[in-house]
């Protein structure tokens, strides 16, 4: 930071009972009162009046020997700024820098210390320092702007704010390879010694030190030039929000205490709303994680519904790019001791995403991009459910509501959803029967892979109804696989029959036999009908009895599977008379599970 030194005399000002004076053999004849401080000075001996046009006008009616008392309570900068001007008049050494330039310049203008009053006066020297030193550097205009908050009207009227902003914008638009001045850049992993090239966002941290109104002026002016990409503008907004907006943890702790005053809350809300209004319209200008952070903060600060709606819309446009960590924010309704995740926030973004997705992709099944997009979101939500399932305070209704919002097309399988349900059941062992039923009702047993289905069959935490459905679908799938293998063998037999020597009928036509005269389609139909008849006659009662009973339990929707063993009416077989037997659903499931395991092992050996 640059500074200007004026004067050579030693500082002899001292304070005595709220009175500032300087060591001198000459008695004071000018008393100036500023607020609670009184200055005892001299009119002519040290050229105070000759340099100050205002004091000349105020003392014009008094004689040179007469003592004069003046009140300058409205001088900009107060007593400190006046003392700089007085020391300049006395020739006492002073240092002017970006930190005290604004107050000194405004006070000098107030006292009319122009070159028209005396050549080489204070105002002329300050203007030269401002234009040649402050505006030519990078950090000095920023530091100068920070001090203008104490004198906003004076700084605006004297052109200090506009000149500093123009200087900053000019340097921000400078190509990075032409940047020669020092700047602040504290990104993790970046060291100036190892990196010779200047990063594109080199200016964002220094500019983030400014007040939100000044920051907005710079960002909007830079955006209007269309020189910098939207992503760079978004990075500047991200850096500023990290610098000024409080974290979620701090918001929750201060929200319930008296320290969170209305003034600080109003200030943070203003910063948030200003940042949201400056986000470029281009998709990807800011990350979806940043949008979720702003959305969570807006809920804690009680921002307007317009701001929340805009953030939800922007986040939904990039929802497929999010990671699980981007979605993990505590709810505003949770207590300070036990937090649960704000699943309603994620649900709101998901619902908006689905509305946009349906409107933009009416034929999404035929469009690979939109299909990939919705499936990425489905996988993201299932992964998020696996994390929030570990929360002790997560309600079943909210968990199920989020899971059900995901359309079926978004899930290729239900493996991830099953893992989330399994975790939830382990963390919440005291769920009621109705809650377990509702939780597992969102699971589609047909969309589980064989490995996951095998694990689910053995899962003691699942309700009996779900296990029965798993066993039924597994048995049905095995039956379809057996049928397809037999059909394949039939076609092989047919192809073999085609290759065998043929006979000729009475009309000298080729024939496969008296039963296979005709075309190939008819021959195939005959083989399939025979195979079906053979299957019906060779069903094993002991293998199909559990399956039939389980199908009846699923279809009728009975909820009393875990009660005492029931009596079931006998099943009639085609070759035997009717009979009755006692059965226990749990024993049947265990028997079916063991049979399923044996069939899976046999299939593995065949592979």
TrEMBL record:
Q: Which Pfam families does this entry report, sorted A to Z?
A: NPH3
Q: What's an example Gene Ontology biological process for this entry?
A: protein ubiquitination
Q: What domain of life? A: Eukaryota
Ranges for domain NPH3: 201-477
According to UniProt, this protein's pathway is:
Protein modification; protein ubiquitination
Provide ranges: composition bias, Basic and acidic residues.
Answer: 556-587, 594-607
Which of UniProt's keywords are assigned here?
Ubl conjugation pathway
Query: What are the start and end residues of every segment in region (Disordered)?
Result: 556-607
Keyword Endoplasmic reticulum listed = no
Please report which protein family the annotation says this sequence is part of.
Belongs to the NPH3 family.
Classification via PANTHER family:
OS12G0117600 PROTEIN
Name of the protein described by the UniProt record: BTB/POZ domain-containing protein At5g47800-like isoform X1
Q: From which organism does this entry originate?
A: Cicer arietinum (Chickpea)
Q: What is the lineage of its organism?
A: Eukaryota, Viridiplantae, Streptophyta, Embryophyta, Tracheophyta
